Amino acid sequence: MRILSFIFASMLCIVTSIFAQEQCLLIDDFEGPLSGGAEGTVDFGAGNGSSVEVSASAEIKNTASQSLKVNFDAVAGGYIFVARGFGLDAKNADWLVKPEDIDWSKYVAFAFYMYGSESAAPIALDIKDSGGEIWRYMFEDSFQGWQKISCPLSEFSARRDWQPETADVNDVMDYPIKSYQFEPRPEAKSTIYFDTVTLE
């Protein structure tokens, strides 16, 4: 089933690429078990009063059999993160493709589908480069239903509010990128869904 899901999403990516005249690589589709914890498949958490619940949704999905459902309450002064990739606390949160196997020179953006609820919630997409430095792109839940969101790598900015102590903070996006995370920002409360993460 996972192989069929991958093939279907890859075909969608190829068809989209033909019309957009650009390359596309499926890196994540949220198929299979979605769980947290040290042995989990999603690295997620919240603090300082904010809360988040992560699960799979078979009812609302963009491709294949399910999507990633994120139910959150982001309060002032709090934080939330929902991450997938490599080098995370959740050992099984890997993408479909290893970062070192990707020719990053071919791609100019992260893209994904989100099912919005018009909550007006500001949401950050953070990516972590090979030096551990975190880069941010902001967007908003300003629509209803599924919508593709494309985030040009050239429009990400290095985070100034916080970086990991071990990060090589050099203001250079060092490849390969190792992980990404969605972070609903305060103040907002809603349920949103993510699916079909690609490089394009």
Outline the structure in words:
- Helices cover 10% and strands 42% of the residues.
- It contains one helix and twelve strands.
- It has one helix at 2-20; strands at residues 25-28, 43-47, 51-57, 67-74, 79-85, 109-117, 122-128, 134-140, 144-152, 157-158, 179-184, 188-199.
- The strands form two sheets. Strands 1, 3, 4, 6, 9 and 12 form a six-stranded antiparallel β-sheet that branches.
- Residues 14-21 have low confidence and may be disordered.
Can you describe this structure in just a few lines?
The protein is mainly β and 200 residues long.
How do the helices and strands line up, and which of them pair or pack?
Layout: H1 2-20, E1 25-28, E2 43-47, E3 51-57, E4 67-74, E5 79-85, E6 109-117, E7 122-128, E8 134-140, E9 144-152, E10 157-158, E11 179-184, E12 188-199
From the structure above, extract its key features.
globular, 1 helix, six-stranded antiparallel beta sheet, 200 residues, mainly beta, 42% strand
The helix/strand series, from N terminus to C terminus, equals HEEEEEEEEEEEE
The percent range for helix content is: under 10%
Largest sheet: 6 strands, antiparallel
Structural class: mainly beta
Average pLDDT metric: 92
Figure out the total of helices: 1
Distance between the termini: 25 Å
Number of DSSP E strands: 12
Strand content: 35-45%
Identify low-pLDDT runs.
14-21
Shape: globular
Q: What radius of gyration results from the CA coordinates?
A: 16 Å
